[in-house]
Amino acid sequence: MPSGSDWFSTEFRAQFDKQDGAIGRFNLAIFGKTGVGKSTLINAIFGEEVAETGIGAPVTKGSKIYIDRHGHLGIVDTAGLEVGKDDREILSELDKAMKQMRRQPLSDQIHLTWYCVRGMDRRFEDAEADFIRRLDKIGLPVILVLTQVPMRDGHYHPDAIALAEHIRSLGLPIADGRPYLTLAKEDSFTGARAHGLLEVLDASFRVAPEGVELALTTAQTIDQKRKALAAQRDIVLAAGSAATAAAVPIPFSDAAMLVPIQLGLMARIAHIYKIKVERAALMAIATTTAATQGGRAAFSGLIKMVPGAGTVAGGMIGAAVASSFTFALGQAWLVVCQQMASGQFMTGNGNVDTSAVRDAFLHEFRKRMAPIRRK
């Protein structure tokens, strides 16, 4: 029989894998001429050096279109093909790939295109306009991004504004009918701050197909409010599921039947905050040290903090107790994940400080249970 921590780790990892599949992947194709700053834009919004790591796997057999997977993000790469030189071949490959991918699961399809133009180039070629029209005809939504646009005192450079107005006048099939002006990386020499990234992300949420919102929320790192709202929705749903599971009161000793609901919630929130499974499992074990052999008494120490637990005849847990406990657990776990994502809880040698994680979790859990206990 495995030890309590081994059992718990195995169960958590199983839930982590399950939630990985449920969240899916957001796949982005990004185009533009060499040097416009595509990699910088990707890394600025998705928070990792994802644009430099390789080609990935072909989307279909024999395809020159590849998806480089990074968790819940896929970056489409046209291996060796360059916009402005190989447009016809790129579009032909995309057209073929899109037709074949429509028969694939949503997570394996291309969802959106960013087309990048350097904001200070002062020109937008007819060939680029035609490329965008062809992308739209293939069935790919397009967001047009002007990159490397200087801004001073809240005003864009006049040349970038002129270029944006020219592009708008062409009536291209692009999101909102206009380009988005951005600076993806702060310029330490001039003091110019990054701007326009949230606007591009917001447009991506509006344009992307239904069903990939959570994957995009998980993949991006610049809109923490979206992550928190997604996690809060999951907490409410899990609390409702726990209440349903205990609609007919269950014995306190059988509280482990709630564990899959709670572990699924914890795994999902860990995904949203891009916490890798190894760290997330350590954190989960640290926050639920009451788990024992086989899991029958998992979370029992925490459940005893919930009003009504063990005081009902026979030590029965009803819907209100199960819901309150799951909600408080989810809220406490959310705070811990947010803190971990911001760089807290790490020791000097790069390991997780599990004692600090456990203390922070219990503090948040007790704080959320206190108002209920006073009722």
Proportion in helices: 40-55%
Counting DSSP H or I runs of 4 or more residues, the number of helices is 13
Low-confidence runs of at least 5 consecutive residues = 250-254, 290-298, 308-314
- N- to C-terminal distance: 41 Å
Radius of gyration: 24 Å
Q: Largest sheet, described in full? A: 7 strands, mixed
Class derived from helix and strand content: alpha/beta
Give the strand line-up of the largest sheet.
Answer: 2-3-4-1-5-6-9
SSE run: HEHEEEHEHEEEHEHHHEHHHEHH
Tell me the number of strands.
Answer: 11
Estimate the global geometry from the Cα principal axes: elongated
The percentage of residues in β strands lies in: 5-15%
Please, could you describe this protein's structure?
The protein is α/β, with parallel strands linked by helices. It is built from 13 helices and eleven strands. The radius of gyration is 24 Å and the shape is elongated. The protein has helices spanning 4-23, 38-46, 87-101, 126-138, 158-169, 197-207, 213-219, 224-245, 259-272, 277-287, 300-303, 319-341, 354-373; strands at 26-32, 57-58, 65-70, 73-78, 112-118, 142-147, 151-152, 155-156, 180-181, 250-251, 316-317. Helix 8 (224-245) packs antiparallel against helix 9.
